[in-house]
From TrEMBL:
Its cofactor is Cu cation. The chain crosses the membrane at residues 573-590. It comes from Cucurbita maxima (Pumpkin). PANTHER family: MONOCOPPER OXIDASE-LIKE PROTEIN SKU5, MULTI-COPPER OXIDASE. GO terms for molecular function: copper ion binding; oxidoreductase activity. This is Monocopper oxidase-like protein SKU5.
Length: 591
């Protein structure tokens, strides 16, 4: 035993030194093997993207300020990037997992993401960001829990449930991608999945036999936190649970003023968490429904996901018609008023968007104003494209952040227009020049006939207004200047605008895009470049030592063979992981 004790005494200060020099906060380690499997979520065998053999992928469950290490092994036949939607990547756009910041992970390679969930709580999700891959899966939930010393603004729930909803095609992402490349529309989805499974057979005509459905088991009298994410392609979905109230508690990292809803519209890329109390009798099971919105609902009846809420003492199966969606076909303000009712709980404890005083956003002077307008798809050089302000974004072969790091010229233009261009649409790699510590107002103007939702990486923005028609300077008179919700994904109704405010305190290169996968794929995005002119490590972490190189920097990339490669974590982190493993072994031996 003496040698073990001596080794223990030797290793303890080393472990402490490396831990403290890396970060004072705990590490959470994950391994993701991304591969194809065959599944039949709508009764038709098809190729889907799995994480560790699971579709959908496993949840990432961590705590505020944890250092998250995820080794991703790409077993697909095409390149891959994983994006952590809503995770702000404070000071480290290097880990964001989009083409503006990262070179793709080639097939048969692995790459290790390392980031800190700094000053964040809430409900988010991850997904593959390249090649339309999200349409085939590869997504999963992210839970960031409060630290124990920070109270949550409601009683501790009896359980935590993740529900992933989304429209789905029985064609895989490569076939859907080809449809878009050929200038065609994707058409109506074949259904809606709930946690990767098709609908319960509530209707023998609409739902064929033999489809596996999701069942969520609960206990009577208990209250659960149910986190719902729309991970789909382009369809807004109305979420509801038969005979149960949805008490909205949080959305994308912000606690909300708690309000009951019988149903809520959840748009592509959005996340909400509800407190749901199991207060009904258990004579039967209950329907969980996610149905298509803002379409011809009589034609889109099959585009409905149905799962089962099963009480542990249930006496029978769910039967009868589904609970109805909002009957607002002739009232276009109903959903918008519902969206406006979602407000920030400004008195709740916990992490807030930085800077800490920015919850008084209504009194901060705006430094930059951008009106970003989208229109229906257009033809540019014979190809169907989508645009923002008349520009269809083209991702450069060398990521923008890498180009800055190596001072490469001509990779992108820092000239994105503040208003829509008046000339013909064009393809460009045009980027917004953000002012470090500035306060930017962005007006998202949807001049298409379809619902759009927009996401910005690196930030939670304040949603201060939305209305139908064209935005004007006078529209600011309608802004909510006190408790507009802070989030990262917001809807813009057809023929309407949404205004957001962003405190540009996070240095890096950050994607702003439509979450509608088809429009995103065709160019409806850009980046906001935020640079600290003093360029210190206090505002941006250095380039990771495992950075991949491509494009003009391709010659810097060393070859990697996954059969012999080990996870690339960087010198200090690798040492820490090794020492902690030995340390754990020693402790076990001493017991």
């Amino acid at each position: 035993m003496a040698p073990f004790r001596n080794l223990f005494i030797f290793l303890l200060p080393i472990c402490l030194f490396v831990t403290l020099s890396s970060a004072a906060d705990p590490f959470a380690f994950f391994n993701f093997e991304v591969s194809y499997i065959t599944a039949s979520p709508l009764g038709v065998p098809q190729q889907v993207i799995a994480i560790n053999g699971k579709f959908p992928g496993p949840p990432i469950n961590v705590t505020t300020n944890n250092n998250v290490v995820i080794n991703v092994r790409n077993k697909l036949d095409e390149s891959l990037l994983m994006h952590w939607s809503g995770v702000q990547q404070r000071r480290s756009s290097w880990q964001d997992g989009v083409l503006g910041t990262n070179c793709p992970i080639p097939p048969k390679w692995n790459w290790t993401y390392q980031f800190q969930v700094k000053d964040q709580i809430g409900s988010f999700f991850y997904f593959p960001s390249l090649h339309f891959q999200r349409a085939s899966g590869g997504f999963g939930g992210i839970i960031i829990n409060n630290r124990p010393i920070i109270p949550i603004p409601f009683a501790t729930p009896d359980g935590d449930i993740v529900i992933l909803i989304g429209d789905w095609y029985t064609r895989n992402h490569t076939a859907l991608r080809k449809t878009l490349d050929d200038g065609k529309d994707l058409g109506m989805p074949h259904g809606v999945l709930i946690n990767g499974k098709g609908p319960y057979r509530y209707n023998d005509t609409l739902v064929p036999d033999g489809i596996e459905h999701e069942t969520i088991e609960v206990h009577p009298g208990k209250t659960y936190r149910i986190r719902v994410h729309n991970v789909g392609i382009s369809t807004s979905l109305n979420f509801r649970i038969q005979n149960h109230n949805l008490l909205l508690a949080e959305t994308e990292g912000s606690y909300t003023v708690q309000q009951n809803y019988t149903s809520l519209d959840i748009h592509v890329g959005q996340s909400y968490s509800f407190l749901v109390t199991m207060d009904q009798n258990a004579s039967t099971d209950y329907y969980i429904v996610a149905s298509a919105r803002f379409v011809n609902e009589s034609l889109w009846k099959r585009v409905t996901g149905v799962a089962i809420l099963h009480y542990s003492n249930s006496k029978g199966k769910a039967a009868g018609p589904l609970p109805e969606a909002p009957n607002d076909e002739f009232d276009k303000t109903f959903s918008m008023n519902q969206a406006r009712s979602i407000r920030w709980n400004v008195s709740a404890s916990g992490a807030r968007p930085n800077p800490q005083g920015s919850f008084r956003y209504g009194s901060i002077n705006v430094t930059d104003v951008y009106v970003l307008q989208n229109k229906p798809p257009v033809s540019i050089s014979g190809k169907q494209r989508t645009t923002l302000n008349g520009i269809s974004f083209v991702n450069p072969s060398t990521p923008i952040r890498l180009a800055d790091q190596f001072k490469l010229k001509g990779v992108y233009k820092l000239d994105f227009p503040t208003r829509p261009l008046t000339g013909p649409p064009k393809t460009e790699t045009s980027v917004i020049n953000g002012t470090y510590r500035g306060f930017m107002e962005i007006v998202l103007q949807n001049n298409d006939t379809k619902m759009q939702s927009y996401h910005m990486n690196g930030y939670a923005f304040f949603v201060v207004g939305m209305d139908y028609g064209e935005w004007t300077e006078n529209s600011r008179g309608t802004y909510n200047k006190w408790d507009g919700i802070a989030r990262s994904t917001i809807q813009v109704y057809p023929g309407a605008w949404t205004a957001i405010l962003i405190s540009l305190d996070n240095v890096g290169v950050w994607n702003i895009r439509t979450e509608n996968l088809d429009s995103w794929y065709l160019g409806q995005e850009t980046y906001v470049r935020v640079v600290n002119p003093e360029a210190t490590n206090k505002t941006e972490l250095p380039m990771p030592d495992n950075a991949l190189f491509c494009g003009q920097l391709n010659k810097l990339q060393k070859p990697q063979d996954i059969s012999s490669a080990t996870p690339i974590m960087g010198g200090k982190l690798t040492m820490l992981f090794t020492l902690l493993t030995i340390f754990s072994t020693v402790i076990s031996a001493l017991r």
